[in-house]
Every structure is written in C-alpha cells, then in structure tokens.
Design brief:
- By secondary structure, the chain is of the alpha/beta class.
- The strands form 4 sheets. A 7-stranded mixed β-sheet has the order 13-12-11-10-9-8-15, with helices on one face.
- The longest helix has 23 residues.
Length: 643
C-alpha cells in the first residue's frame, strides 16, 4: 500500500429504470474512468444494474434474466481492470430473489452479499419483491455460470491481509445493530454501503450523522453510494448521495441532485485505523464474549497505484476549524480551569504564583489563572505574577508582561535575577562571558527557585507555563522551568497556544488587555536567556534553534497519536506543507525531532501534574509511558534514509 492509503470511490451513475443494457454500459464506463483515476475499490448504488425503482417488474423473468446476462457482459468488458467493484443487482437463487451486492475483479465474481434488512415503508415495501438474507437456503449462488460464495458472512481480504472490507446494503445501516458493526469486529477496516435512499426534508442531515457515526463507532472507512438522477420520480426523488467517511470525519461528498454521473474519490488511511484499533481492546473483547458466527474470508488482489492523495492533510492537526474555534477554545479553557480549580480546592490554597515573561506560554497560563479565580470567586489579586528580568530580557517582553498583569488586575512583583546569577556564577566558578548551557540553565533555575519560595511565603501554588511542544522536544531546563506544582499548559501544543491567546484577545478581554495580547502574539518565541541584540531586540529565537513549531507539532501528532514512523510522517508533511517547506527542510527538522524526543524523555518522566486536553498527552502517569533510556536507532535509521 501507499503509506497505508487505499483509494476508494463512491459512484453515482446515470440510470434508466429497467434498462439493464444501458445501466451496464454506464457502470462499465465508470469503472474504466475509476481505473484511470487510480481507484482501487469502487462502490455503485443498490440495484444499479436494473434501477432501484422497478417495483413489480422485479417479478418479471425478463428483467431478472436480462440483469444476469448483462452482468456476464460487464464481466467480459471489465476483465482487464484491476480494481474491485461492488455492483448492486437482483440475484436469483432458485425460487428466491435477493437484493444483493456483487463483488467483481478482473472479470471474476468474488462473492455476493444479500441485503439483511428489507424496509417496510409505504413507498418501498421490499419484502414484496425480495427475500431477506436470513432466509437464504445456501451459502453459494449460481451466477454467470459459476457457483460463487453467497451470504452476509463474507469478508474480503487482500493478499497479505493488510486490507479487509465488508458490505452492507442501504437499510442495514439504519438498524440498531448494522451488519457493518459485526464486520468491523471481525476485522473489516473498510465498509461499503450500496444504497438507494430517497430524499425527504431533514433526512440528509440524519444520513450524514449515521455515516459519520458508524465510521467512528467501527473505527473504519465507510463508503456510501446511493441512487441518483434517472431513478423513477413517480413518488419520490433520489439525490445521488456519495459519501466517504473515516473514523467520524467526512472526507468527500457528492453534489446532491446533480444531473450528471459522479465519481466521489478519496483515500482511506488503513494504518491510521489499525493504530486506533490496537488501542481499543473492546474489538477483541466483543468477539471473546459473544462468540458469533464464523466469517468466510475471500482473497482479492489490491491493485498497486501511484501514491497520490486527494484528501486534505491539515498542517495544523491540533488546531480546530474556524467554525469550531469558539466552542473548542471555550472547552479547552474549561478543562484547564477546572483542573486548576480542583487543585486549589484540594490544597486549600487561595494564591497562585506564576512567572510572567511576556511570552505566549506564560500569557496563556496567566489567563487560565485569572479565569480560575473568577470561577472560584477569589479576587484576581490573589494571583502573584512575577516578572524576573535577566540578561536576555528585552524591553518589549518586559513591558508586555507588566501591562498584561496590570490590565488583568493581579498582584505584580518584579524580582530581577541578574545579580543573583552573577553571584552564583562566582560561587561555581563560571565566567558570565561564557554563554553556554550553564549560563542559560542557571537563569531558568534561579527563576524557578524564586517562584517556589514565594509560593511557600504565601501558601500558594506555582503554576507551570511549559507547553506540550516544549515537553516533546525537551526544550526546558531540568528542575528549572520544567518544574512546577501544577502545569496547566502541559496538554497544549505551541500551535494551539497561539490560537487560544488570539481567541482570548478577540472575545474575552478588554481592549487594553487585547492590545497587549496581540503584541505578545507578534513577538518571536524565545526563552530570552542570552543577551539581547545590539538594538535591544531578541537575539535567541527558539525556532531558529530547534525548528518551526508547526512542523514539530505535526510530527508529534502523527508519531504519538497513530504511531506512524518517520517515512509516513515525512510523506504526510510534504503534502501538508507543500510550497511552504522543502522536502530537505522537513527531513532536517524531523531528524532533530526524533533525536530530541528520545533523548529528553527523562524530563517527561518526572513532569508535574497537569490536565490532559486533547488526544495526546505526554504524562508518564497516563498517556505516555516510555523508558528514559530507550534507543532511537530504528527511528533514526528510517529518518536518515528519507529522500
């Protein structure tokens, strides 16, 4: 597979009711188009070969025979095509007629899956024409001159077992326990639904929720193809819904009520689905507890196609979409403030101590502290914000730190660290002219000591400011800014910190505070541990040293959330940051990320308590348990081999 991606399509063909030859020609043409587009698995609507709205014509031997004959011609015409196609048609088994899906590849029928649940509606009383799957008399059916596997117990697996798919039909999805749920529990990562669902007011939204929810519940890709233009409109109208979803996210959708045939294309990330399923032990637990029927596995060949993605790879996986931004930011703040509030109540403290640098992280921590005090009806003056100017502090960050503290109404303290650090350098015999790691870390530890001691003075809590990205890279001084009494930002990556601060500036504070927040947002990220430049500006810019945080957050998300290796992360990053970073630049910073992530685990192994916010957290007590001396050899070998 191409980095775990399988290319699928939901097809909405033009149809003529009861004209099997016309419909077969359209199906064949669309299969050929799909093959040219690099599709590996393609799904057509329910009863696409005859049209869904044939009504009592399904009792006519002419129609049934014609459908079977046109299937044979379709197999001959498409024998050279490598893709797998799922065709809806009526299938005759002795005296029984089934509404079924026929899976074909390279001119051969792989298997036939009948519909499990037949609708009982005034406009579509399918039991008038078809027999439900449960009443089938045999596990095979004679079709196109061969006895082929037949039943709802069919799973289709690629050679090697990397990809397994299952099939259900229309109404099956709308039941309390859809067949696709059972298929997923047996290993199907891809689920296909051949449908012919008519339109009614509000029905489409419900359908969307069903498809997304089923893909999420099954941790699967879900491909839904429904009848469209050409079906009879005697009593109802079909909109031609083609939907592709993956684990709760809609990847692609057809244009509804289009008069043209459509190929709705996307890629399903099998590796991503497998990664989630490995974490969800209930899949195996269900099978153990419920036993269940044995499923027959039918092997197919997954065509090899060029590695091309049509789906969007978002460069900022931690950042919510614009339409979700307000609700998500409010939720994140609620998690942070609830965590801090519980810690304050438990420790019987009414004071919070936080170091304010004028940078993004300490700004977010201070905003969380302010809201927490508001929720607990504690005056904001109980927050002691301490600015600790040192060798690298610039006028801009110093002024912003003071302005923000004053506008938020907290207690402001200024404790310079220059003299204390110079005395410390003399004590340990270190020249202040040597700007090495000792020079930098001594400042960070001096600041932490001040915060801890002031907290002791007032019986307060030191609120940590370090974020998730810094924890991942180890960009913190051990027993310095790495330490606190509660780290409210520990679950927030740097890219999300920026959006949260912007959201607060836009929606939550007065103009004076908002102006300060916007200037903080425009300030380069820096620990300010090295002397300022000659013009007084920041000389030590973090992203010049460790790389762009937007790249590191991307690497972090895919490595921790899904367990992807450097090769796949590199591939995805090239898609996400196309035109912004070259492949060589991405490779450079990916190598640095891997090296630092492994080398700096010891700092995470003793990190303070702090709330989990999203799907990723590096707390050693919960989400991430990694030995501090684990070797990065295998990951580095893969990363170094990238081109």
């Amino acid at each position: 597979m191409n980095y775990g991606f399988v290319r699928v399509a939901a097809v909405v063909p033009e149809v003529k009711v009861a004209d099997c030859a016309f419909n077969a020609g359209k199906i064949a043409g669309l299969m050929e188009r799909a093959e040219e587009a690099g599709i590996q698995l393609v799904c057509f609507p329910e009863l696409a070969l005859t049209g869904y709205t044939c009504g009592d014509l399904f009792h006519q031997q002419v129609l049934l025979a014609k459908a079977a004959g046109e299937l044979e011609k379709l197999l001959e015409r498409t024998a050279s095509l490598r893709l797998v196609a799922l065709i809806g048609m009526p299938v005759v088994a002795g005296t029984q007629v089934f509404n079924a899906a026929v899976a074909i590849q390279q001119g051969h029928i792989m298997g036939v899956v009948p519909k499990t649940y037949l609708p009982n509606y005034s406009e579509f009383y399918e039991k008038r024409w078809f027999v439900p799957a449960a009443e089938a008399l045999s596990g095979t059916v004679e079709l196109a001159g061969n006895a082929v596997p037949f039943g709802t117990d069919l799973l289709f697996s690629s050679a090697g077992g990397e990809v397994t798919f299952g099939i259900e039909i229309c109404e099956d999805l709308w039941t309390p326990v859809p067949p696709s749920s059972l298929l997923a529990m047996q290993g199907a990562q891809l689920l296909f639904n051949l449908s012919a669902s008519n339109e009614a007011i509000g029905k489409h939204d419900y359908l969307l929720s069903l498809v997304k929810q089923q893909s999420a519940r099954c941790v699967a890709g879900y491909v839904y193809a429904s009848a469209g233009f050409g079906e009879s409109t005697t009593d109802v109208v079909f909109a031609g819904n083609g939907l592709i979803a993956e684990n709760g996210t809609l990847l692609a959708a057809a244009e509804r009520f289009s008069l043209e045939e459509q190929l709705v294309i996307s890629e399903i990330d099998i590796h991503r689905l497998d990664a989630d399923r490995r974490r969800i032990t209930s899949f195996a637990e269900y099978n153990r507890l419920n036993g269940g029927k044995e499923y027959r596995r039918i092997q197919f060949t997954l065509p090899e196609v060029p590695a091309v993605l049509s789906r969007l790879v978002h460069p900022y996986p931690f950042v919510p979409s614009e339409k979700e931004m307000n609700a998500r930011c409010e939720e994140i703040f609620a998690i942070q403030t609830s965590g801090l509030a519980k810690r304050m109540v438990h420790t019987h403290t009414r004071h919070l101590v936080v170091g304010i640098s004028g940078g993004l992280d300490s700004t977010l921590a201070l905003l969380v502290c302010a809201r927490t005090c508001d929720r607990l009806d504690i005056p904001r003056s109980s927050i002691i914000g301490i600015t600790m100017p040192g060798f690298g502090t610039t006028g801009r960050t110093y002024a912003n730190a003071l302005a923000l503290m004053r506008s938020l109404g907290i207690t402001v303290r200024e404790i310079p660290i220059r003299e204390a650090c110079e005395l410390h350098f003399r004590d340990i015999g270190h020249s202040p002219e040597v700007h090495d790691v000792t020079y930098e870390n001594a400042q960070a530890r001096e600041r932490t000591q001040i915060l801890m001691d002031v907290a002791n003075q007032v019986n307060g809590l030191v609120v940590g400011t370090g974020d998730l990205s810094e924890l991942a890279l180890g960009w913190a001084t051990y027993n310095g800014d790495q330490m606190s009494m509660y780290g409210v930002n520990a679950g927030i990556p740097k890219t999300l910190v920026r959006y949260l601060v912007k959201w607060v500036a836009d929606t939550q504070v007065d103009k004076a505070s908002a102006d300060t927040l916007r200037d903080i947002l425009d300030t380069p990220v820096s620990p300010e541990l090295l002397p300022a430049a000659g013009d007084g500006t920041i000389a030590q810019k973090t992203e010049d040293l460790v790389g762009p945080y937007e790249l590191h957050d991307f690497f972090l998300y895919y490595m921790i959330r899904f367990g992807f290796g450097p090769a796949k992360i590199f591939y995805l990053a090239q898609q996400a940051f196309s035109g912004l970073y070259s492949a060589e630049t991405i490779r450079k910073w990916l190598l640095i990320f891997v090296r630092r992530f492994f080398a700096q685990q010891f700092k995470r192994s003793c990190m303070p308590d702090g709330p989990k916010v999203g799907t990723i957290n590096l707390s050693p007590r919960g989400d991430w348990r990694m030995p501090s001396d684990a070797a990065a050899t295998a990951w580095l070998e893969e990363a170094e081999g990238l081109v």
